[in-house]
Write a structure and sequence with these properties.
This protein has 359 residues and is α/β, with parallel strands linked by helices. It has 14 helices and 14 strands. Among the domains are: 1-82, Arc Repressor Mutant, subunit A (Orthogonal Bundle); 264-355.
Length: 359
């Protein structure tokens, strides 16, 4: 056994170890995982690293690109128990591959997988199949890949790719139900992982879809909690107040994003100083009259919706009434294109824009 392992490179063993946990992964993600330092970016070269695994029957590759571990590959890791079970239908295989892909990104960000948060005191990722055994009331059409436990956060994680996915507004809200299960299993927010080159495009698409229906979506009324599955329809991703936080990141920036999310509350407190907290997310984090401040160091898409909605309401109010109120926003420089998606807001009188870590 040891002799067999020594014949394989560390990145090949890393892929097999991952497949021992998750059974399957799409071929492109296999190459991403094999590119251990994320500098090769050469699919042809990486394919040569992958090829011995199929040639020597460690894994199999289907015509649709799905890669599965075989008995020989699994025998290298006898102590690893799979976290997921793959159903025989195509939809089940695609679903399992998505969860596996997210877990791969988490591992690259030094967040390991577990079947329960009780198994570790460290940050961990719980795949959706395991989480459904822990949390009651989750509707069947939910699209989350799993739960990320970091600090005080329990984030439902989604692989949104280019942002074009089927979204079930009420079904995803079932992760936040207060009347099902223990309060410590209720999600505290969401984490969207999108393609590295689609970050701004995805952010704008989701914000615009939410702003279009913002009176319905970001009101503070209690949502009706359902046990029956909701009708499955294709819809763009849009957000509602029930989600609390919706952080956007990419595979490359995931580790940095996790650190910023963990530091978010302390950073807001440092910015706030002795000023009064607003207690209403729709009106910012705190008030230092005549300014209300939105501190968005984490690319929280829901907070951007709150900011844009508040700013647009103020612009309408100013058309007929004088007002001393102004808004300020703190955000990372990479989010400046998101701020500019509504020119009437980004150019409004009195707006103060502050780059994260310069305040």
């Amino acid at each position: 056994m040891k002799t067999t392992k020594t014949k394989l490179k560390e990145n090949q063993l890393g892929l097999l170890r991952h497949l021992a946990l998750y059974e399957t992964l799409d071929y492109s993600s296999c190459l991403w995982l094999l590119d251990s330092d994320k500098t090769t970016n050469d699919r042809k070269a990486l394919s040569y690293v992958f090829r011995p695994l199929t040639k020597n029957n460690y894994v199999s590759k289907r015509k649709d690109g799905a890669v599965s571990i075989l008995a020989k590959g699994r025998s290298l890791f006898p102590d690893i128990k799979p976290l997921v079970t793959i159903s025989g239908n195509a939809a089940g295989r695609v679903r399992a591959a998505t969860v596996s892909r997210v877990a791969m990104f988490m591992h690259a960000a030094e967040v390991e997988s577990a079947s329960s948060p009780n198994e570790t005191d460290e940050a961990c990722f719980i795949p959706s199949a395991c989480w459904r055994k822990i949390r009651d009331g989750i509707l069947s059409t939910t699209r989350f890949a799993g739960m990320l436990f970091i600090g005080n956060h329990r984030l439902a994680v989604y692989d949104v790719g280019n942002g074009n996915m089927e979204w079930q507004l009420r079904a995803e809200g079932s992760l936040f139900y207060r009347n099902h299960g223990r309060s410590e299993t209720r999600a505290t927010g969401m984490l969207f992982i999108c393609d590295d080159d689609k970050r701004v495009e995805v952010a704008e698409r989701i914000i615009r879809a939410t702003m279009w229906q913002r009176k319905q979506l970001i009101g503070r009324s209690n949502s009706h909690e359902r046990d029956r599955p909701v009708q499955y329809v294709r819809a763009p991703i849009h957000l509602k107040a029930q989600y609390e936080h919706v952080y956007l990141t990419t595979p490359v920036s995931l580790s940095e994003s996790i650190g910023t999310i963990c530091d978010e509350e302390d950073y807001i407190t440092r910015c706030q100083g002795g000023h009064e907290k607003t207690y209403d997310p729709a009106q910012g984090d705190y008030e230092a009259w005549p300014y209300r401040f939105f501190i968005n160091s984490t690319t929280d898409l829901l907070k951007y919706v709150y900011f844009f909605a508040a700013a647009k309401s103020l612009l309408v109010f100013r058309m007929e009434h004088p007002s001393e109120l102004n808004y300020a926003i703190v955000l990372p420089e990479r989010d400046f294109p998101i701020l500019n998606m509504y020119p009437d807001v980004s150019k409004m009188d009195g707006l103060e824009v502050i780059k994260h870590n310069e305040y």
